[in-house]
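Format notes (please read before filing issues)

Several people have asked whether sequences and structure tokens are stored in separate files. They are not. Every record keeps both together, in the order shown below: the sequence lines, then the token lines. Line labels are part of the format and must not be stripped during preprocessing.
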Amino acid sequence: MQKRLVLLLAIAALLTLSGELTRDRTGDSGLQLERPSFLALASTAQAQEKGVNFLQQEAGISAYVKVGQTIDLAQVKGVFKTVETIGDQYIIGEVALPDLPEEAHPHVYVNKDGWIVAYYSKHEPASKITHWERATAGTTLEQAIRRVFSPVRVEEIKYYNFKYPQAQHIMLITEVLEADGRDTFYLKIPQGLQIFEASWLHYSSRQGYASQLWIDDVQINSFSDKGARYGDLTGRLRIDFRHTIVVTAYKGDGVTIVLIY
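Then the structure lines:
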């Protein structure tokens, strides 16, 4: 059984990076949230035409990039699993990713000017950005962007949360079982840190074997199917309190806690 304590304050220096996924020695990850410049169109005549108002109303956690060329919407239309909205200047639809259930497929906005925004609804947990079986390929939002426009490099992609525009960072804290049994780690949020959203992803690598997630002696999730489950923790994590997070499962199973602050 492995135990460790994650102190957000101790690794805050990681969170000054510009859209690049970086890991410290414990495997925890930090991303900076940056306001995209196209939001300057908000409240202008062009905002409706380009779909900017829609993003502000509907999107939550997002990844975006501005490619150095105009985009032919007719060409990218075929990438979408379903098309939800299409106009003269932009298209919005759902992009399917391998090994993900339908409820975890990101939405993608593309406009002719070269902007691509992959996002989840503001009503969905931000933990959906974790693609467990393809973690080395980056977040689900990065993968969706590159399916629409493959030349995009990871370091060009930036992140923003439309639901919490004042948030500056997102952190992914991941624990993976190295053997069958039980794994524990602790999370402590320091004074002075405002958490806008907290969510979890619980992954099970086997079909027919129960995998359980506990936080502070309360069972958060239990299931026996291969795949991932997602949920919200907003308001449940206390400041300056050592939270105990336990995964009882099998080798390769695990949990990711996602914090937006």
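For reference, the curators noted about this record: The longest strand covers residues 59-66. The chain has two domains: 5-30+169-260, 34-161.
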